[in-house]
Amino acid sequence: MSLASPAPAATPVRAARPRATGSAVGTLEAARARSREIEEQVAAKPEGFRVLTGERPTGALHIGHYFGTLANRVRLQQQGVELFLILADYQVITDRDETGDLRGTVREILLDYLAVGMDPDRTTVFTHSAVPALNQLLLPFLSLVSVAELERNPTVKAETAATGERAMSGLMLTYPVHQAADILFCHGNLVPVGQDQLPHLEMTRTIARRFNQRYAAAAPYFPEPDALLAHAPTILGSDGTKMSKSRGNTLPLGASADETARWVRRARTDGERTITYDPDARPEVANLLTIASSCTGRSPEEVADEVGAAGAGRLKGLVTEALVEHLRPVRARRAALAAGDGPDVLDILARGNARANEIADRTLEDVRDRMGMAYRGR
Known about the structure:
CATH class of the largest domain: Alpha Beta
Structural class: mainly alpha
Low-confidence stretches: 1-26
CATH architecture of the largest domain: 3-Layer(aba) Sandwich
Strand content: 5-15%
CATH topology of the largest domain: Rossmann fold
């Protein structure tokens, strides 16, 4: 769908098959089973789904993002699913006092999006701060949840613990509700997530359900979005821990071939010479095998068998070659776009913001109508 032709937000996008309300994503097994059903529905009727996903623009995207989320977004886009990608710039300040070079970071992420294959004529990219009506939905949504429900959200607790001695901000506490506004403003009904994000999505489902019960019982307005659990591998950083911009252990998507080789050389392995795929006992070696597998389409076990007793040096050489070759076309497109060969990425963002505003304005108007807050004259 063209950015210039927004779908009416007053008509929610529905899933291809009706489903009962309730806490269907409340258990991991239920979520996995539902995800398998949804994958089949997406393949049969992609136009029945609208996906909302995105990230906080806190730094450059890296290969963990690429293998973990970006490739899946491109897959969904190619299947014909409508995507909304949010750059949640307001959420940058949930746990920090400064935004840094936010404009520069957003521009770099947009280059990454285009380089991996996101199509701005089929996918809407926008920022939090540019869509006032989206953020205004936070107010009625906050009335639908209790402080206790917010405080016991496990993701909020974990993210707050990671900040050390810093006091929890009000924005962090209400993060799940803000995320609900992100998803529901465009009537998103499908959200790709990892299992650790299921509580956030359950909060969104709760808010949608409670709004419908209170203000739209006769004709439910908001869909209760489903989780699409990611099948993508988790890529560890060079130090063997979770890849994180704050830890400095990432490989940026736009890194050069030499930078890629240096990153792989620094990657941890272990003292055993023979290479085997054992994620539990040998996570660092398994990580490199997973990267090679993701780049070549071969199984990690096949790659391990090829390296065998040749050891970590041979494995790192193979991983470097696979990464460089796999990312070569992505990096070439990115370099060309950064050099001005193609549309200005900030112009693309402006188009996406305009479309998001049209939809959010209509959604907010509908919400006000249903809450009895429309004060129009004759």
